[in-house]
């Protein structure tokens, strides 16, 4: 029996990047995984197909988390799928991974872009948790993917960093609020990780300068982040709650 045998997980933004690696890892540990996506249906279906081919269980589910009501709709679709597919009255693991970044200083950011980041990075995770709390079983796990950018002072993260800092504040208070249901709530804060979002970390040449700021001498890969999430959602991670765990290879800010 694997670490997550019999558990059901929802991972947002799982068609690519860190979310895809998390979905694959939780499925490898034998969770049934709902692979949420926004616009990349083919990529989400490919992730599901890969999981199923490896002997796991997964299904894709679509929702736009950049709009008010998007998270509540996702919760409805997810719980309907659980009833239809597994006659399941609840689920066990929620990973709020979907996120959006925009490099802009306070002078350059527009109010529309600020709203977009706020909705996608903070309001949607908030309302997804709110809508799914009645369905999260005792002993459940919530992991919010934040960013080491919350503690760095990067002027070009004028809107992004505050939205992720809000997610970390939410993590801490929910850990206290939900402790009596034995639900743990943690943030995982990636450092520079090679995904579509981080073009510097993705570029083998440009990433060398970043790698010099990282104790382990390289930028992160999506699986590096997924490994940390896998620990937090496992039984072994059950005594960790309300924390921000840096997953950065020892990146200096
Ligand atoms: P990515 O751009 O590959 O993935 C982001 C995911 O969010 C995608 O699956 C995308 O579909 C989803 N998403 C974006 N807008 C959405 C919307 N409107 N509705 C629904 N889903 C939407 O980048 P990634 O690096 O894999 O990012 C994953 C998480 O890690 C994000 O929350 C990001 O902020 C965080 N993070 C990444 C890095 C890094 O260096 N890559 C560093 C710190 C934090």
Question: In a few lines, what is going on in this structure?
Answer:
The protein has helices at 17-28, 41-53, 70-86, 111-132, 160-178, 199-202, 207-211, 222-233, and strands spanning 8-11, 32-37, 57-62, 91-96, 136-145, 184-190, 244-247.
Describe this protein's structure:
The chain starts with 7 loop residues before the first strand and ends in a 6-residue tail after the last strand. The chain contains eight helices and seven strands; from the N terminus they run βαβαβαβαβαβαααβ. A seven-stranded parallel beta sheet has the order 3-2-1-4-5-6-7, with helices on both faces. It has one domain: Rossmann fold, CATH 3.40.50.720. The chain has 253 residues and is an alpha/beta fold. It has helices at 17-28, 41-53, 70-86, 111-132, 160-178, 199-202, 207-211, 222-233, and strands spanning 8-11, 32-37, 57-62, 91-96, 136-145, 184-190, 244-247. The site of nicotinamide-adenine-dinucleotide has 27 residues, from helix 1. The site of nicotinamide-adenine-dinucleotide (NAD) has 27 residues, from helix 1. GO terms for molecular function: oxidoreductase activity. Keywords: NADP, Oxidoreductase. This is NAD(P)-dependent dehydrogenase, short-chain alcohol dehydrogenase family. Belongs to the short-chain dehydrogenases/reductases (SDR) family. InterPro entries: NAD(P)-bd_dom_sf, SDR_fam.
């Amino acid at each position: 029996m694997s670490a997550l045998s019999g558990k059901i997980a929802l991972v947002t933004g799982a068609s690519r990047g860190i979310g895809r690696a998390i979905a694959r890892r939780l499925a490898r540990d034998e969770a049934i995984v709902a692979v949420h996506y926004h616009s990349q249906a083919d990529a989400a279906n490919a992730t599901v197909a890969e999981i199923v081919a490896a002997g796991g269980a997964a299904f894709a589910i679509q929702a736009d988390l950049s709009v008010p009501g998007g998270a509540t709709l996702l919760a409805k679709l997810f719980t309907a799928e659980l009833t239809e597919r597994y006659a399941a009255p609840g689920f066990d693991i929620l990973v709020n991974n979907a996120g959006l970044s925009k490099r802009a200083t306070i002078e350059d950011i527009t109010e529309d872009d600020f709203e977009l980041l706020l909705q996608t990075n903070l309001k949607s995770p908030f309302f997804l948790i709110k809508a799914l709390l009645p369905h999260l079983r005792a002993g459940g796990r919530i992991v919010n993917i934040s960013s080491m950018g919350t503690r760095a002072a990067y002027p070009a993260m004028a809107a992004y960093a505050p939205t992720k800092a809000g997610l970390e504040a939410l993590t801490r208070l929910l850990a206290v609020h939900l402790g009596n249901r034995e639900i743990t709530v943690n943030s995982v804060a990636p450092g520079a990780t090679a995904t579509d979002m981080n073009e510097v970390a993705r570029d083998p040449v440009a990433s060398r300068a970043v790698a010099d700021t990282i104790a382990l001498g390289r930028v992160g890969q999506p699986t590096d982040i997924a490994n940390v999430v896998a620990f937090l959602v496992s039984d072994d991670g059950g005594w960790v709650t309300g924390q921000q765990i840096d997953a950065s290879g020892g990146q200096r800010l």
